[in-house]
């Protein structure tokens, strides 16, 4: 995809022939910065003749470091040597005069070729292996979605590139919990099946603005759930872990084929229980099923949610019933439903509260440290143009 950065609203029509249909026109540096931040599929930025040279060079310089495969092409009304050398020094790939559409077509072709070669080169290097964390419980209503949304928000807020996938395909409520209004969902990945790429993930995900978390929501229409083959979620998770630090997966309360595939691909499996006999029984059954499927025991993290509820069952009773140790206990708190009703994750809404402290403990101690992350001085991703708005 191309971006045409031009202050003239009619520019896209004028250059359409040269730039092709997969081009979005944007009038300001801030909007271009935002588009580049949100859409990793942008491969060429073409800068119109009226954009100030310094602004254009600033973008080229930033792109050279953060997105070296992306091409920046600059149009000027007249060529002058000073502008030309300043532009090329900053990393602009090509400079053309705005009236010469043939030169623009040629420059774009050369730049695209170079982009493809650079992408091909980077594909030869080992892909980044992000970690997949699936939240599961065989019983409904135990707090899976609460945990998945808050854990993912916490990871994203910590500067880690994080994708949350709602695999509760029929009744998923991640979007509503985060107050997102998705235009696309995992259902749209079906059409890209077999050739899903990073740009495809960007297209089907929605950004949670307060944290920078990317979310692939469940379909709006529960009827679409059955039309999503399990291979689609497998392809999505496998690809996502190459492009994200963490992929968090929320699940429905049963071992669907999608869930089994996600568990299989997971580096950590968070199993959630509450202090009631059916939940504990279901957790025991889930653990037995996972054992039978050969799922590694050391990948499991047991979380007891609403752990302080006075219901006659104690955490020790749960541990002895499931024969596993509870890693994290999350207290019962009215702040949870009220944060969900406001659509603000509790880790942002009430960061000092005991529920948030427990969720951060899960994220930092039981997940990030497990994968060898050094937590003093959390890794802050450079974040492409993140500072601008
Ligand atoms: N620690 C907590 N304290 C108080 N209420 C909680 C807590 N955790 C979850 N809840 C409440 O429990 C309800 C169910 O939570 P949630 O939707 O996260 O569960 P779930 O396991 O995803 O359910 P489902 O199986 O239906 O998807 C919500 O109303 C939520 O507000
Ligand atoms: Mg749920």
From TrEMBL:
Gene3D superfamilies: P-loop containing nucleotide triphosphate hydrolases (3.40.50.300). InterPro entries: AAA_dom, P-loop_NTPase, ParA/MinD_ATPase. It holds the Pfam family AAA_31. SUPFAM superfamilies: P-loop containing nucleoside triphosphate hydrolases. Residues 131-290 form the AAA domain. This is AAA domain-containing protein.
């Amino acid at each position: 995809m191309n971006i045409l950065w031009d202050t003239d609203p009619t520019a896209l029509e004028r250059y359409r022939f040269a730039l092709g249909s997969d081009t979005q026109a944007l009038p300001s540096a801030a909007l271009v910065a935002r588009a580049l931040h949100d859409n990793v599929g942008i491969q060429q930025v073409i800068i119109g003749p009226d954009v100030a040279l310094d602004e254009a060079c600033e973008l080229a310089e930033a792109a050279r470091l953060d997105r070296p495969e992306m091409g920046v092409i600059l149009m000027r009304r007249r060529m002058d040597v000073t502008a030309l050398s300043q532009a090329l020094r900053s990393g602009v790939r090509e400079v053309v005069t705005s009236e010469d559409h043939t030169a623009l077509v040629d420059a774009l072709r050369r730049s695209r070729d170079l982009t493809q070669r650079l992408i091909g080169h980077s594909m030869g290097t080992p892909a980044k292996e992000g970690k997949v964390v699936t939240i599961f419980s065989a019983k409904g209503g135990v707090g899976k979605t609460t945990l998945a949304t808050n854990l993912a928000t916490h990871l994203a807020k910590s500067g880690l590139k994080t994708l949350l996938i709602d695999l509760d395909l029929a009744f998923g409520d991640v979007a509503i919990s985060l107050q997102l209004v998705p235009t696309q969902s995992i259902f749209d990945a079906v059409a890209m099946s077999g050739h899903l790429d990073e740009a495809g993930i960007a297209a089907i995900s929605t950004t949670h603005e307060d944290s920078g978390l990317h979310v692939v929501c469940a379909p709006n229409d529960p009827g679409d759930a059955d039309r999503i083959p399990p291979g689609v979620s497998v392809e999505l998770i496998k690809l996502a872990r190459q492009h994200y630090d963490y992929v968090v997966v929320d699940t429905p309360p049963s071992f669907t084929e999608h869930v089994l595939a996600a568990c299989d691909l997971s580096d950590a499996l968070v199993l959630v229980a509450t202090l009631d006999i059916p939940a504990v029984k279901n957790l025991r059954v889930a653990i037995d099923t996972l054992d039978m499927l050969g799922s590694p025991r050391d990948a499991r993290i047991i979380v007891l949610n609403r752990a302080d509820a006075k219901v006659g069952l104690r955490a020790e009773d749960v541990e002895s019933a499931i024969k596993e140790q509870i890693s994290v206990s999350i207290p019962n708190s009215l702040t949870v439903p009220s944060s969900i009703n406001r659509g603000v994750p509790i880790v942002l809404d009430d960061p000092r509260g005991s529920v948030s402290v427990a969720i951060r403990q899960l994220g930092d101690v039981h997940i990030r440290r497990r994968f060898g992350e050094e937590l003093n001085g959390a890794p802050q991703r450079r974040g492409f143009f993140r500072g601008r708005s």
